[in-house]
Amino acid sequence: MGNIEQLSECRSGHARERGAPGKPALIWTVKGVCVLAAVLYLALTVNFRQVLPALLQARWALTAIFLFHFVQLAFSSAAWQMQFPGRWLWWICLRIRWIREGAGSLLPVGTLSAAALASKLLCRYGIGCASATASLATDLAAETTGQLVFLIFGVALIPSGRMTGHGELWLATLLLSVAGICVGFVMAQRMGLFRLIDLFATRLGPSRRKGALATTEKFHDALMTLHARRGRLGKAVILHSISWALGTIEVWVAFHGLSHAISWRSAFVVESIGMAARSAGFAIPGAVGVQETGFVFAAGLFGISPELAIACSLLTRGRELLVAASSLVVLGCEELRGGDYPMASLRRESG
Fold first, then answer.
1. What single-letter DSSP state applies at residue 159?
2. What is the pTM for the complete model shown?
3. Which of 6, 193, 250, 350 could staple 188 via S-S, CB 3.0–4.6 A?
4. What is the DSSP track for 153-181?
5. What does the pLDDT look like over 300-323, one tens digit per residue?
6. CA distances from 49 to 37, 53, 56, 181, 258 (A)
7. Where are the domains of the chain?
8. Contact 64, 258 (CB under 8 A)
Protein backbone atom coordinates (compact mmCIF):
# COMPACT_ATOMS: atom_id res chain seq x y z
CA MET A 1 0.00 0.00 0.00
CA GLY A 2 2.89 2.33 0.75
CA ASN A 3 4.24 1.70 -2.75
CA ILE A 4 0.82 2.39 -4.21
CA GLU A 5 0.61 5.70 -2.37
CA GLN A 6 4.11 6.63 -3.57
CA LEU A 7 3.02 6.02 -7.14
CA SER A 8 -0.06 8.19 -6.60
CA GLU A 9 2.08 10.94 -5.11
CA CYS A 10 4.40 10.83 -8.11
CA ARG A 11 1.42 11.15 -10.43
CA SER A 12 0.00 14.09 -8.50
CA GLY A 13 3.44 15.73 -8.51
CA HIS A 14 3.57 15.55 -12.31
CA ALA A 15 0.05 16.96 -12.49
CA ARG A 16 1.02 19.94 -10.36
CA GLU A 17 4.02 20.57 -12.56
CA ARG A 18 1.72 20.75 -15.58
CA GLY A 19 -0.57 23.19 -13.83
CA ALA A 20 -3.48 20.77 -13.51
CA PRO A 21 -6.51 22.10 -11.64
CA GLY A 22 -6.80 21.29 -7.94
CA LYS A 23 -9.27 18.42 -8.08
CA PRO A 24 -8.59 17.34 -4.47
CA ALA A 25 -9.62 20.81 -3.27
CA LEU A 26 -12.91 20.52 -5.18
CA ILE A 27 -13.56 17.04 -3.78
CA TRP A 28 -12.96 18.16 -0.21
CA THR A 29 -15.15 21.21 -0.77
CA VAL A 30 -18.01 18.96 -1.88
CA LYS A 31 -17.44 16.71 1.13
CA GLY A 32 -17.47 19.71 3.44
CA VAL A 33 -20.74 20.93 1.97
CA CYS A 34 -22.26 17.47 2.50
CA VAL A 35 -21.15 17.46 6.13
CA LEU A 36 -22.57 20.94 6.76
CA ALA A 37 -25.86 19.98 5.09
CA ALA A 38 -26.16 16.87 7.25
CA VAL A 39 -25.35 18.76 10.44
CA LEU A 40 -27.81 21.54 9.53
CA TYR A 41 -30.55 18.99 8.84
CA LEU A 42 -30.02 17.33 12.21
CA ALA A 43 -29.89 20.70 13.98
CA LEU A 44 -33.27 21.63 12.52
CA THR A 45 -34.97 18.32 13.22
CA VAL A 46 -33.50 17.23 16.57
CA ASN A 47 -33.84 18.91 19.97
CA PHE A 48 -30.26 18.82 21.20
CA ARG A 49 -31.29 20.31 24.54
CA GLN A 50 -32.66 16.86 25.36
CA VAL A 51 -29.65 15.03 23.90
CA LEU A 52 -26.88 16.62 25.96
CA PRO A 53 -28.35 15.89 29.44
CA ALA A 54 -29.01 12.29 28.38
CA LEU A 55 -25.37 11.91 27.28
CA LEU A 56 -24.12 13.19 30.63
CA GLN A 57 -26.21 10.57 32.43
CA ALA A 58 -24.82 7.79 30.22
CA ARG A 59 -21.14 8.15 31.17
CA TRP A 60 -20.99 4.63 32.56
CA ALA A 61 -22.44 3.28 29.30
CA LEU A 62 -19.65 4.94 27.31
CA THR A 63 -17.04 3.21 29.47
CA ALA A 64 -18.85 -0.11 29.16
CA ILE A 65 -19.12 -0.07 25.36
CA PHE A 66 -15.51 1.07 25.05
CA LEU A 67 -14.30 -1.93 27.05
CA PHE A 68 -16.65 -4.33 25.29
CA HIS A 69 -15.47 -3.12 21.88
CA PHE A 70 -12.28 -5.08 22.37
CA VAL A 71 -14.33 -8.27 22.10
CA GLN A 72 -15.33 -7.10 18.62
CA LEU A 73 -11.70 -6.27 17.88
CA ALA A 74 -10.72 -9.80 18.91
CA PHE A 75 -13.10 -11.34 16.35
CA SER A 76 -12.05 -8.90 13.63
CA SER A 77 -8.41 -9.69 14.33
CA ALA A 78 -9.11 -13.41 14.15
CA ALA A 79 -10.75 -12.82 10.76
CA TRP A 80 -7.70 -10.92 9.50
CA GLN A 81 -5.39 -13.62 10.87
CA MET A 82 -7.17 -16.10 8.59
CA GLN A 83 -5.16 -14.60 5.71
CA PHE A 84 -1.95 -16.05 7.17
CA PRO A 85 -0.86 -19.63 7.93
CA GLY A 86 -0.69 -20.76 11.55
CA ARG A 87 -2.25 -19.20 14.62
CA TRP A 88 0.68 -17.37 16.18
CA LEU A 89 -0.15 -14.07 14.44
CA TRP A 90 -3.44 -13.34 16.21
CA TRP A 91 -1.99 -11.14 18.97
CA ILE A 92 -0.05 -9.11 16.41
CA CYS A 93 -3.18 -8.68 14.27
CA LEU A 94 -5.09 -7.53 17.36
CA ARG A 95 -2.57 -4.80 18.14
CA ILE A 96 -2.35 -3.61 14.55
CA ARG A 97 -6.13 -3.79 14.12
CA TRP A 98 -6.44 -1.58 17.20
CA ILE A 99 -4.08 0.95 15.63
CA ARG A 100 -5.85 0.58 12.28
CA GLU A 101 -9.26 1.48 13.72
CA GLY A 102 -7.85 4.40 15.66
CA ALA A 103 -5.99 5.74 12.63
CA GLY A 104 -9.12 5.38 10.52
CA SER A 105 -10.89 7.77 12.89
CA LEU A 106 -8.05 10.29 13.12
CA LEU A 107 -6.38 10.41 9.71
CA PRO A 108 -7.88 12.58 6.94
CA VAL A 109 -8.11 9.83 4.30
CA GLY A 110 -9.50 7.38 6.83
CA THR A 111 -9.51 3.75 5.76
CA LEU A 112 -6.81 4.03 3.09
CA SER A 113 -4.33 5.84 5.34
CA ALA A 114 -5.05 3.39 8.16
CA ALA A 115 -4.48 0.45 5.80
CA ALA A 116 -1.16 1.93 4.66
CA LEU A 117 -0.04 2.31 8.27
CA ALA A 118 -1.17 -1.24 9.13
CA SER A 119 0.70 -2.63 6.13
CA LYS A 120 3.89 -0.87 7.23
CA LEU A 121 3.59 -2.24 10.77
CA LEU A 122 2.82 -5.77 9.57
CA CYS A 123 5.95 -5.77 7.39
CA ARG A 124 8.03 -5.36 10.54
CA TYR A 125 6.94 -8.81 11.64
CA GLY A 126 8.43 -10.63 8.68
CA ILE A 127 5.44 -10.44 6.33
CA GLY A 128 6.36 -9.37 2.79
CA CYS A 129 5.06 -5.95 1.79
CA ALA A 130 3.04 -7.39 -1.09
CA SER A 131 1.50 -10.07 1.15
CA ALA A 132 0.76 -7.57 3.92
CA THR A 133 -1.02 -5.16 1.56
CA ALA A 134 -2.91 -8.02 -0.13
CA SER A 135 -4.06 -9.31 3.26
CA LEU A 136 -5.51 -5.90 4.08
CA ALA A 137 -7.35 -5.68 0.76
CA THR A 138 -8.78 -9.18 1.23
CA ASP A 139 -9.71 -8.49 4.84
CA LEU A 140 -11.57 -5.32 3.85
CA ALA A 141 -13.53 -7.33 1.28
CA ALA A 142 -14.38 -9.98 3.89
CA GLU A 143 -15.36 -7.31 6.40
CA THR A 144 -17.68 -5.62 3.91
CA THR A 145 -19.25 -8.97 3.03
CA GLY A 146 -19.77 -9.67 6.73
CA GLN A 147 -21.52 -6.34 7.12
CA LEU A 148 -23.80 -7.13 4.20
CA VAL A 149 -24.77 -10.41 5.91
CA PHE A 150 -25.39 -8.51 9.15
CA LEU A 151 -27.55 -5.93 7.38
CA ILE A 152 -29.64 -8.59 5.63
CA PHE A 153 -30.41 -10.24 8.97
CA GLY A 154 -31.24 -6.83 10.45
CA VAL A 155 -33.69 -6.03 7.66
CA ALA A 156 -35.29 -9.46 8.09
CA LEU A 157 -35.94 -8.67 11.78
CA ILE A 158 -37.88 -5.47 11.07
CA PRO A 159 -41.49 -5.99 12.20
CA SER A 160 -43.96 -6.08 9.35
CA GLY A 161 -46.06 -3.00 8.71
CA ARG A 162 -43.60 -0.59 10.36
CA MET A 163 -42.33 1.12 7.20
CA THR A 164 -43.90 3.53 4.78
CA GLY A 165 -43.19 3.56 1.06
CA HIS A 166 -40.57 6.26 1.59
CA GLY A 167 -38.89 4.18 4.28
CA GLU A 168 -38.83 1.09 2.08
CA LEU A 169 -37.21 3.09 -0.71
CA TRP A 170 -34.56 4.47 1.66
CA LEU A 171 -33.80 1.01 3.04
CA ALA A 172 -33.64 -0.55 -0.43
CA THR A 173 -31.18 2.16 -1.49
CA LEU A 174 -29.07 1.43 1.57
CA LEU A 175 -29.07 -2.31 0.84
CA LEU A 176 -28.07 -1.73 -2.78
CA SER A 177 -25.33 0.67 -1.72
CA VAL A 178 -23.72 -1.76 0.72
CA ALA A 179 -24.14 -4.65 -1.73
CA GLY A 180 -22.62 -2.52 -4.49
CA ILE A 181 -19.60 -1.66 -2.33
CA CYS A 182 -19.16 -5.31 -1.42
CA VAL A 183 -19.52 -6.69 -4.95
CA GLY A 184 -17.43 -3.92 -6.45
CA PHE A 185 -14.60 -4.46 -4.00
CA VAL A 186 -14.55 -8.22 -4.51
CA MET A 187 -14.81 -8.01 -8.31
CA ALA A 188 -12.05 -5.40 -8.45
CA GLN A 189 -9.77 -7.91 -6.74
CA ARG A 190 -10.92 -11.01 -8.56
CA MET A 191 -10.68 -9.41 -12.02
CA GLY A 192 -7.26 -7.96 -11.37
CA LEU A 193 -8.35 -4.36 -11.69
CA PHE A 194 -5.64 -3.38 -9.24
CA ARG A 195 -3.26 -3.80 -12.17
CA LEU A 196 -4.54 -0.43 -13.34
CA ILE A 197 -1.91 0.91 -10.98
CA ASP A 198 0.48 0.05 -13.80
CA LEU A 199 -0.77 3.19 -15.51
CA PHE A 200 0.76 5.24 -12.75
CA ALA A 201 4.10 3.55 -13.29
CA THR A 202 4.21 4.57 -16.94
CA ARG A 203 4.58 8.17 -15.79
CA LEU A 204 7.74 7.37 -13.85
CA GLY A 205 11.23 7.53 -15.20
CA PRO A 206 12.74 4.46 -16.91
CA SER A 207 14.91 3.69 -13.88
CA ARG A 208 11.90 3.48 -11.54
CA ARG A 209 9.29 2.04 -13.88
CA LYS A 210 10.63 -1.52 -13.77
CA GLY A 211 10.65 -1.65 -9.96
CA ALA A 212 7.17 -0.15 -9.72
CA LEU A 213 5.72 -2.69 -12.15
CA ALA A 214 7.44 -5.54 -10.33
CA THR A 215 5.93 -4.39 -7.02
CA THR A 216 2.45 -4.21 -8.56
CA GLU A 217 2.83 -7.69 -10.02
CA LYS A 218 3.87 -9.11 -6.64
CA PHE A 219 0.86 -7.48 -5.02
CA HIS A 220 -1.51 -8.94 -7.60
CA ASP A 221 0.00 -12.43 -7.25
CA ALA A 222 -0.26 -12.27 -3.44
CA LEU A 223 -3.88 -11.15 -3.75
CA MET A 224 -4.77 -14.06 -6.03
CA THR A 225 -3.06 -16.48 -3.65
CA LEU A 226 -5.24 -15.28 -0.78
CA HIS A 227 -8.39 -15.49 -2.91
CA ALA A 228 -7.56 -19.10 -3.74
CA ARG A 229 -7.92 -19.99 -0.03
CA ARG A 230 -11.70 -20.00 -0.12
CA GLY A 231 -12.09 -21.92 3.12
CA ARG A 232 -10.14 -19.29 5.04
CA LEU A 233 -12.04 -16.50 3.30
CA GLY A 234 -15.34 -18.08 4.30
CA LYS A 235 -14.21 -18.29 7.94
CA ALA A 236 -13.08 -14.66 7.79
CA VAL A 237 -16.52 -13.57 6.58
CA ILE A 238 -18.19 -15.53 9.41
CA LEU A 239 -15.89 -13.99 12.03
CA HIS A 240 -16.49 -10.50 10.68
CA SER A 241 -20.25 -11.13 10.69
CA ILE A 242 -20.03 -12.10 14.36
CA SER A 243 -17.97 -8.99 15.08
CA TRP A 244 -20.59 -6.78 13.43
CA ALA A 245 -23.40 -8.56 15.29
CA LEU A 246 -21.65 -8.00 18.63
CA GLY A 247 -22.25 -4.29 18.08
CA THR A 248 -25.83 -5.10 19.07
CA ILE A 249 -24.66 -5.35 22.68
CA GLU A 250 -23.11 -1.88 22.46
CA VAL A 251 -26.39 -0.38 21.26
CA TRP A 252 -28.37 -2.27 23.92
CA VAL A 253 -26.04 -1.00 26.67
CA ALA A 254 -26.08 2.54 25.23
CA PHE A 255 -29.87 2.78 25.28
CA HIS A 256 -30.01 1.40 28.80
CA GLY A 257 -27.45 4.02 29.80
CA LEU A 258 -29.80 6.61 28.32
CA SER A 259 -32.55 5.25 30.62
CA HIS A 260 -34.47 3.70 27.76
CA ALA A 261 -34.65 -0.09 27.79
CA ILE A 262 -34.97 -1.73 24.38
CA SER A 263 -35.19 -5.33 23.21
CA TRP A 264 -32.33 -7.26 21.65
CA ARG A 265 -34.26 -7.34 18.39
CA SER A 266 -34.52 -3.55 18.33
CA ALA A 267 -30.82 -3.17 19.15
CA PHE A 268 -29.88 -5.58 16.35
CA VAL A 269 -31.90 -3.66 13.76
CA VAL A 270 -30.64 -0.24 14.92
CA GLU A 271 -27.00 -1.34 14.86
CA SER A 272 -27.21 -3.09 11.50
CA ILE A 273 -28.88 -0.16 9.72
CA GLY A 274 -26.88 2.52 11.52
CA MET A 275 -23.50 0.97 10.71
CA ALA A 276 -24.58 0.22 7.14
CA ALA A 277 -25.49 3.88 6.69
CA ARG A 278 -22.06 4.84 8.00
CA SER A 279 -20.37 2.54 5.50
CA ALA A 280 -22.52 3.84 2.65
CA GLY A 281 -21.45 7.37 3.57
CA PHE A 282 -17.75 6.55 3.38
CA ALA A 283 -17.13 9.47 1.01
CA ILE A 284 -18.12 11.95 3.76
CA PRO A 285 -15.50 12.45 6.50
CA GLY A 286 -16.57 10.36 9.48
CA ALA A 287 -19.92 9.79 7.77
CA VAL A 288 -21.07 12.77 9.84
CA GLY A 289 -24.84 12.98 9.73
CA VAL A 290 -25.19 9.82 7.64
CA GLN A 291 -24.67 7.46 10.57
CA GLU A 292 -27.06 9.55 12.68
CA THR A 293 -29.68 9.39 9.94
CA GLY A 294 -29.43 5.61 9.92
CA PHE A 295 -29.86 5.45 13.69
CA VAL A 296 -32.84 7.80 13.63
CA PHE A 297 -34.53 5.82 10.84
CA ALA A 298 -34.00 2.42 12.46
CA ALA A 299 -34.91 3.59 15.96
CA GLY A 300 -38.08 5.21 14.62
CA LEU A 301 -39.29 1.78 13.47
CA PHE A 302 -39.57 0.85 17.16
CA GLY A 303 -41.06 4.13 18.36
CA ILE A 304 -37.79 5.52 19.73
CA SER A 305 -37.46 9.29 19.55
CA PRO A 306 -34.87 10.92 17.25
CA GLU A 307 -33.22 12.55 20.28
CA LEU A 308 -32.49 9.17 21.88
CA ALA A 309 -31.28 7.75 18.57
CA ILE A 310 -28.89 10.69 18.11
CA ALA A 311 -27.64 10.28 21.68
CA CYS A 312 -26.96 6.59 21.04
CA SER A 313 -25.06 7.42 17.85
CA LEU A 314 -23.00 10.03 19.69
CA LEU A 315 -22.12 7.47 22.36
CA THR A 316 -20.72 5.17 19.68
CA ARG A 317 -18.73 8.10 18.30
CA GLY A 318 -17.42 8.75 21.80
CA ARG A 319 -16.30 5.14 21.95
CA GLU A 320 -14.51 5.66 18.63
CA LEU A 321 -12.60 8.59 20.09
CA LEU A 322 -11.54 6.52 23.10
CA VAL A 323 -10.37 3.71 20.82
CA ALA A 324 -8.46 6.25 18.70
CA ALA A 325 -6.82 7.86 21.73
CA SER A 326 -5.78 4.51 23.19
CA SER A 327 -4.50 3.34 19.80
CA LEU A 328 -1.98 6.19 19.85
CA VAL A 329 -0.44 4.61 22.95
CA VAL A 330 -0.21 1.24 21.20
CA LEU A 331 1.28 2.89 18.12
CA GLY A 332 3.82 4.65 20.31
CA CYS A 333 4.88 1.32 21.79
CA GLU A 334 5.27 -0.15 18.30
CA GLU A 335 7.41 2.79 17.21
CA LEU A 336 9.58 2.59 20.33
CA ARG A 337 10.32 -1.03 19.55
CA GLY A 338 11.36 -0.18 16.01
CA GLY A 339 13.20 -2.57 13.71
CA ASP A 340 11.99 -5.87 12.32
CA TYR A 341 10.90 -9.01 14.16
CA PRO A 342 11.88 -12.32 12.57
CA MET A 343 9.18 -14.96 12.13
CA ALA A 344 11.07 -17.56 14.17
CA SER A 345 11.34 -15.36 17.27
CA LEU A 346 7.64 -14.52 17.06
CA ARG A 347 6.70 -18.20 16.96
CA ARG A 348 8.83 -18.83 20.08
CA GLU A 349 7.18 -15.93 21.91
CA SER A 350 3.67 -17.12 21.02
CA GLY A 351 4.51 -20.72 21.76
1. P
2. 0.78
3. 193
4. HHHHTSPTT---HHHHHHHHHHHHHHHHH
5. 999 998 889 988 988 998 898 899
6. 20, 7, 12, 37, 14
7. 2-10+50-350
8. no
